[in-house]
């Protein structure tokens, strides 16, 4: 499945809020491409292609099942 068509699992603001010590960091410094690359390099290999695609599809549609919520 082409998961690049779906929005990222987190936003730049969420990345900054959960990982940066300086909460005043400009969200434009965390590009969507950087988030996509991080998902592909670190999340997809752990979840596997099928489950990663399922999460991306559900997240994009706003229909995460109870088992797939955080």
Question: Please, could you describe this protein's structure?
Answer:
- The chain is 53% helix and 0% strand.
- It contains three helices and no strands.
- The two termini are 23 Å apart.
- The model has no long low-confidence stretch (mean pLDDT 92).
What is the topology?
Blueprint: H1 12-19, H2 32-47, H3 49-61
At a glance:
It is built from 3 helices and no strands. With 70 residues, the chain is an all-alpha fold.
Order of helices and strands: HHH
- In helices, the fraction of residues equals 40-55%
Q: Unreliable stretches, pLDDT < 50, 5 or more residues?
A: none
Distance between the termini: 23 Å
Basic shape: globular
The secondary structure category is: mainly alpha
- Strand-residue fraction? under 5%
Number of strands: 0
Q: How many helical stretches?
A: 3
Radius of gyration: 13 Å
- Note the main sheet: none
Mean pLDDT score: 92
List keywords for this structure.
70 residues; mainly alpha
